[in-house]
Amino acid sequence: MRDRLCLVIQEHQLDTALVKAYALDFCGASALKEAPREMVEKFVEHLAERSERDRDNLLGQLNSYVMSIHEHLPRQIRNELREVGWTKGVELAKLARRQGQRFGSATFMHKALHITKEEFRREVEKESTGKDSELSELIYFKFYKIQVSFIEQAIETAARTSAITQNRPMSIT
Fold this sequence. Notes:
Distance between the termini: 18 Å
Strand content: under 5%
Shape: globular
Largest sheet: none
Mean pLDDT: 78
Number of domains: 3
Oligomer: single chain
Number of helices: 9
Number of strands: 0
């Protein structure tokens, strides 16, 4: 499902941050992790169909999320938004929306100016959920069918070796 969403975004050159804001609104969730899988699947289908059928209208709707993001930010941050960019602005808006009057805009604005987008997303997630997430990256590979059994065997061997050296039970799913 995530792969399909990434393909739709890439194929139609959509802004990832705005698509995410649209997805949260569509699914009625504060974070996509909290949205029911069925709603996320419906959103991906909806986005694919709309981007094929009427991309210009979809872009107009996505751009309306820019304004809603802007509305949730304190005046001081709105003035400095160009310096941090829209992706970090979306993250700032999430915090402002969740925390209301408690939002420490100066602290997070300082962080937004001095760390990468990914680090800033982690900081926002940590502040919102209290959990620190591990950095990850999605990597795609293309294999010939004949190669799959050799690769599976290599992964199993590596997992066993890792489990033995770390003295943990092995589990591959």
